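Chain A, query sequence.
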Amino acid sequence: MKKKESTIGSTLFMFTGEVDTEFQVKDNSKRIHLLILSPTLEVAKQVTDVLSKYGNLNSDGRPKLHMSSPELVEAIMEIDPWNEVIPAHIWTPWFSLYGSRSGFDRIEDCFRDQTRNIHALETGLSSDPAMNWRLTCLDKFTLISNSDSHSPWPYRLGREANEFELKDTSYKEIVDAIRKKDSKRFVRTLESFPEYGKYHYTGHRNCNVYLSPEEARKCGNICPVCKKKLTVGVLDRVVELADRAEGYRPEGAIPYVSLIPLQEIISNVLGVREVFAKSVWEEYNKLLKKFPNEFHVLLEATREDISSASSERIADAVIRVREGRINFRPGYDGLYGMPILVENNTNQVEEQRKLNDQNKERAKIEPELTSKPKPTDQRGLSDYF
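Chain A, predicted structure.
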């Protein structure tokens, strides 16, 4: 956030949370993740009190609520009109507004009369604004982007963000800029390349199979190896619902830039499997000693300055990412995409096998969704009252 007052250099916080609404629609189970923003601590406490009637808020960092999405929106907005509810990672196969497994084809089918209180949508790691621009029905909504970090790994924080230029750095001005889709105050989003997300392509992780929408359709969305159903990816789902050609940009759209975490760039250049390896952090810390923050390195620092603080190879890789000159083994079926920044003479099939193995190892080390914390270890908002 760029601030025009004396708050520069300070860290500001907003009361936010993510919940999982579980409900039935015509005998079909629906689970939709929603973000909740509240203007004050007192209002946040009221939100907690109301939602505690529908589920155990201390059971998980993203508690499950036995209420429909429109019921939640209505309840939250009755507490305070400055509360904001935003559908989270709207294309993820599971638990999202447009998800291929438990979502809807139209936002009105999900939120019904409460659609009027939905002002913004979160793109999620596996999609970017350009993909969402292909749907005319999304033009009236502001697209936001968040890191969606449900793990303690620092390189997951800030991997996506929203950039504001505000005269008054306050909750209400931020929410007002979002609601009005004001590009003078909400200047851009910082997005991961969608190929980096865990569900961009259609695929089956157990068989190392990932397919483009065209390839998946030829297979009938059936894994060519084990003959089980494939997990339909975000790109495939966007193509299914899109009514515009790729490349369309609607009037008034908030700009965006694409990037990947600095640690991913460094590990790729060094040829190190783990992004949390000591050698990766050594190079990362060299850069953070010279520059104000990671975003400055990724978006503003010159090749010469990066090279002087680290190395020419890392500097070249950062510039390549900044200019969009990057290849991926796209993410699929819960596996993160793997950036390919260093050209080599390795056989392509062998390279893909290595990348898949790396991602499987990373999934074991970072059990973000498969390992659930014990309730006694989890702290909720109610713990602070």
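The CA atoms of residues 34 and 87 lie 5 Å apart. The chain has a mean pLDDT of 88.
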